UniProtKB/TrEMBL annotation:
InterPro entries: Cro/C1-type_HTH, Lambda_DNA-bd_dom_sf. PROSITE patterns: HTH_CROC1. Signal peptide: none annotated. GO terms for molecular function: DNA binding. This is Transcriptional regulator. Residues 20-62 form the HTH cro/C1-type domain. CDD domains: HTH_XRE.
Amino acid sequence: MPIVVRLDVELAQRKLAVGDFAERVGLSPANVAVLKNGRAKAIRFSTLEAICRELDCQPGDLLEWVPDGQEPD
């Protein structure tokens, strides 16, 4: 998949547990896990906004485009 979600990296850097983060953002822990593990097929802008607000980051900090056949950084 050419879009890589870096939510796991951002949560690890901030030492945030998925459950705590999910509660703060207003998502279920299962939905955060889907995003974190790169299994999501889509994300609502309102969800992306809530995540960026909570993590004080930009969407580009969470999402990376990787050409087919290349490994993500």
